[in-house]
Each structure stands twice: as structure tokens, then as C-alpha cells.
Amino acid sequence: MLERILPGGVASAELLAYPEELTAHPAEEHLIAKSVEKRRRDFIGARHCARLALEQLGEPPVAIGKGERGMPLFPRGVVGSLTHCDGYRAAAMAHSLRFRSVGIDAEPHGPLPDGVLDSVSLPAERAWLAGTPADGLHLDRLLFCAKEATYKAWFPLTLRWLGFEDAHITFRTDSRTADSGSGTFHTKLLVPGTTKDGGAPLMEFDGRWLIADGLILTAIAHG
What we know:
Elements: E1 10-15, H1 37-56, E2 65-66, E3 72-73, E4 78-85, E5 88-95, E6 101-108, H2 117-120, H3 123-131, H4 139-158, E7 167-173, E8 182-189, E9 204-212, E10 215-222
């Protein structure tokens, strides 16, 4: 599913079922040695997907460490993102010569828990939710999912926190598809986007979203 919302040049892999024989890379085991089983499976599954995506890019399937705020440490010259939720693990990877960053997120297609929306959204976003026919889609969870993908695209370039209130997201629905469960989104960053490498400051991101098979997927590939 993920490849449906990623542009050419971004490799991806996903697991819908967890292979019982799957084990941690020996060089990553220490990172999850004390983790509960669910955390281990999410960690191992997502990194397994990352190595599959790396191979698609012609890169060796190396260990993937963990950096500041849990950021995955990908090989030099590669950018990427990992995600997981119940029943799903995935990775998207690209060469940094083509894309500056990649951010993906997966969420179950269900409503946000009571009380969460106000803490993860702006007034303008809540107004959009209130005035948009849902047509069976949980748009509040879609908004949260897009905010998560935005953060994952932002943090590796800036090494700075980005709060939910620091990004305003708007959505469009694909009109050419048979259903209304896909489209694009635009993130306007509301804080200075100075990057750690001195490159062009970040002002916005554009991404795609998909709702299918009980999942919400969002993806940003920032060139």
C-alpha cells in the first residue's frame, strides 16, 4: 500500500503479518534487550523493512542504530523513515542526492481517543474537520497521521522538536479515484525552519495520504 503514495526514487517495504522466524540484527539487539515483546516486534519488523528498502536502492542491508529522540540512523547518503502500528510495519528510503528527507506514518483507521484532538490540532484544522463531510473516514486520525509524518520529515534536517501547534495541515481528496480514501496534504510550517546543514530553510512539506484496509498511511518525500 505504501508505494501507492510515494514518488519514484523512494523505495519501500511493509509487513502486514509478522514472520515468527524474524529476529533482531545482532548489532541492534542491545537497543531492545529490555523491551517488551510488542516493542521488540515493532522495532525488528520496521528495521527489517528498512533493510529490504535499502536493497532496492542498491545499498547493503546494514544495522540501523538509534540517535537523538529515537531517530533511526541510516547509512550515509540515505534518508528514510520507519513506522508501525497494530498489524503493520513499514519503511521508506531514498538517496539523499534526490530527496532531503522522507517521513511516513501509519495509524489504525479509527477515531482519535476522546480529548486528544484539541491537543494535536490548531483551531483552523478543527474548523476544517467540523465543516467537512467525513463520508465514513476518520479525518481526525488522518490529521494526526499527517502531523506525525511531518515531524519525521522535519527532525532529521533540524534536530529540533516540532510541536503539533507548529504546523498547519490542509488536505485535498483525489477526485479521479473510485473512492475518496486518498489524496494530498500540504504542511505549512509555523516556526523557523533553519536546518542543521545550512541548506535552504524549511517552510513547507507536501505529502500524500491513503486510507485502505483498516489503515491510514501518510508520506512525505521532500526534495
